[in-house]
Amino acid sequence: MALSRMFQMNELCTPRNSLFIRKSPPKSVRNFRQRNNDPAKSNVSSIETPFQDVTLGGSNLHPRNLWKPFGFTIGFSAACFVGAAIWEYETMRAHAIKMLKKPVRLFKRQADDFHSRSNTLLRQFEEKWKLLTPGEKVFVPICLINVLVFGAWRIPRLQPFMLKYFCSNPGSKSVCLPMILSTFSHYSGFHLLANMYVLHSFSTGAVHSLGKEQFLGLYLGAGVISSFTSYVYKVITKQPGLSLGASGAIMAILGYVCTQYPETKLGIILLPIFTFSAGAAIKVIVGIDTAGVLMGWKFFDHAAHLGGAACGIMWALWGNQYLWAKREPILHYWHEFRGSIK
After folding, report:
1. Which of 186, 191, 302, 305 is catalytic?
2. Alpha-carbon gap, residue 173 to 170, rounded angstroms
């Protein structure tokens, strides 16, 4: 059902780095287009946008310039894995401490009740937060960050800063931080709406299978890997361009869910009688993006999509078995650092 809505909303999505297809020219997206008369400038829309007349640095597209973002990709992905393992440890540790102190908390119940009544708004928020599913509890902060970044694009004084750090481009002077920051960056409202809708649709199943720690590690790591894949493609084809959007990271989640649960039935909204398997859906999506890379289609950043999808698929096939299952040394060293529970 989530995938069906993804296809139905394609005409609303203007960005190129979305999981959606539209017929009319998009505004700003994880895509790269050049002026015919000036290959060093970006002109991603006929409507006035901050992306017009931006120097893309086409002269810097040399393979040797990929070493720095490559190192950042390896380091950041490893940090995501280690961070997810430590977060899982801290979650279990906090739960253990809570259980050990539970008898003591019984004597403090009256004081806690009085304190909670004095913080009505906080109490209401906590009650509503408890009603959310684990997947929604991960989705809400991610969505909020994307909305805040979207709002920052609306502030003219911030646009030079946003162009520098929230748009990834291998020809830019800043190539590392934008690889992750651009994953939370959307200039078009339709781009933001479409990507967040798909993320919400698939996050529940992914978090249920992976856990919130592993889910976030995969999401962030895949976001950087998809950006690096886009860098490599742009350098090989000598096509500089700005990329932004969460589609690379979302493709990893979609790829994981469709590979982990290939027999899950998906449908198209307004056409409930037409269903297809998740396994078939990811094959079609990867096939389209592969064709886009080989044929040089420029409505989407197909290379970034493929990089993200490859992360999700490989994590479903090998990640849990050969990486996540071998995190015990990290947990051991962290436990030694933290010390025993007192």
Report:
1. 305
2. 8
Token digits of residue 190: 């339709």
243 is catalytic: no
- What distance in Å separates the CA atoms of residue 86 and residue 91, rounded to the nearest whole number? 9
Lookup result for tokens 């479409």: 194
Two structure tokens written together for 213: 């720690």
pLDDT per residue as tens digits for the range 283-326: 999 999 999 999 888 778 899 999 999 999 999 999 888 889 88
- Whose CA is closest to 25, among 35, 34, 15, 17? 15
Residue with tokens 């806690």: 112
In a 3-state reduction of DSSP, which class is residue 21?
A: coil
Query: Which tokens belong to 248?
Result: 């690379």
- Please list, residue by residue across 298-309, b when 16 or more beta carbons sit within 10 angstroms of its beta carbon and e when fewer do: ebbbbbbbbbbb
Total-model pTM: 0.79
Per-residue pLDDT band for 98 (boundaries 50, 70, 90) equals confident
305 counts as catalytic? yes
Q: Token pair of 221, please?
A: 């790591």
Average pLDDT over residues 214-222: 96
Neighbours of 267 (CB within 10 A): 16
pLDDT in tens, 232-251: 999 998 888 889 999 999 99
CA distance 272 to 247: 26
| Catalytic one of 18, 226, 243, 247 | 247
Distances (CA, A) of 54 to 108, 164, 315: 61, 10, 37
